[in-house]
Amino acid sequence: MQPVVSPSSRLGQSFRTSVRALLLSSILLGSSFSHVTAQTVGDDDNVATQQLNLPKDVTVFGKADPNVRRATAIVNGRIITGTDVDQRLALIITANGGKVAAEEKERLRVQVLRNLIDEALQIQEAAANDIKIDKAEIDQSYQRVAANFRQSPAQFDQYLRAQGSAPASIRRQIEGELAWSRLLRRNIQPFVNVSADEVKSVVDRMNAAKGSDEYRIGEIYLSATPENQAQIATNARNIIEQIKQGGSFAAYARQFSEASTAAVGGDLGWVRPAQLPDELAQAANEMQVGQLAGPIPVPGGMSVIYVMDKRKVLTADPRDALLSLKQLSVSFPAGTTKDQASAKAAAFAAQTKSIKGCGQANELGGKIGADVVDNDNVKVRDLPPQLQDILLGLQVGEATPPFGSINDGVRVLVVCGRDEAGGAAAPNPDQIMAQLEEERVNKRARIYLRDLRRDAVIDYN
């Protein structure tokens, strides 16, 4: 589906940072997720048994040790080394603040190897179709990634090495994504057609659905067969646990999702439940913003979904209002205890409670030694969820309660002006057509990659 990128905003030092790099994404998803009970895999395996003509009583000749994990492979002659796996794994661990249990690292290592195999197949297939990504193009993309981390390419090289990864690993991933994208544009996209009648039908349905809920969904899709369905479900649950412990959903989506939306952190954009497969629609209807659900069985595999945002179809959202804010902040000296910080915050709250308009904010800031920062055109939805409801309930001239931490100090926001959200835009036929095309390209791309896996010669070492 066509991704929708939310703009990021800065307020003072930072309330929320959203960095969408081509390769590494670290998105602050909040401190916790509410668990949503997922559907379970059905017990009826008769279909698979009949398709494969399997005997009812199975005797296994030989032994497969589940504790033996092979970390390297040769894919149609292309060698994937243990170092390749370690360097790519280091990117995931870095995105999770280095907090990954040893047992989970081993499970991630196996999944990373699968991803590297797919990446090799994609690059090989592109090359077989005379598609080769120039080094200059890879360098340009790499520079953009480094810039998103506010570093020069040379500095970013050092940063990656310090994390146990390497520039070559990211460059290889860049090459794989660009090559696969170009291959799909050449071999699949020209043969995907969306008629004007289909677009009109979607527009009509959206108009009919005005005022109903739509969600901004993130998805991690993992393909599965009847034979490995249980293992894939376990992998999905492990991913969910890592995200709940503070891991980046976008980072996991980039590394593990097998949908084309992996390149944008799994972002499906704004969708209504009716646009989703029934299994995902049922879960989305039961979820709140910030919740995870999964693993959810879907045709061809498993999905983990994350509700990033929610709004009403074709209805103005108060969170799209633009605010002019004034921020007063007071920092705590090094070594401040929790009790000392609480006392200082209480005094700060008493002082700021008397603010009557932004004109007094500057005067008060000078008296109490607070830093005062003006912030204009701040969209409410770009602020942390804890502040959104508070600010929506304030009138011009009113201040929020104090908030902050021992490390960041304490601060308040004063509303200096508000431009209410305008009417929601009518459906854009061009965007709808692009979204429908993307859905169909994505579906065919999965089949394409499945066929490449089936025909590959892979030697595990």
UniProtKB/TrEMBL annotation:
Which residues does the UniProt record annotate as the domain PpiC?
A: 212-309
User: Would I find Signal among this entry's keywords?
Assistant: yes
Q: Which Pfam families match?
A: Rotamase (PF00639), SurA_N (PF09312)
What GO MF terms are annotated? peptidyl-prolyl cis-trans isomerase activity
**UniProt keyword annotations, A-Z:** Chaperone, Isomerase, Periplasm, Rotamase, Signal
Task: Note the InterPro entries from the entry.
Answer: OMP_Chaperone_SurA, PPIase_dom_sf, PPIase_PpiC, SurA_N, Trigger_fact/SurA_dom_sf
Signal peptide location: 1-38
User: What is the name of the protein in this document?
Assistant: Parvulin-like PPIase
Q: What is the organism of origin for this protein? A: Sphingobium herbicidovorans (strain ATCC 700291 / DSM 11019 / CCUG 56400 / KCTC 2939 / LMG 18315 / NBRC 16415 / MH) (Sphingomonas herbicidovorans)
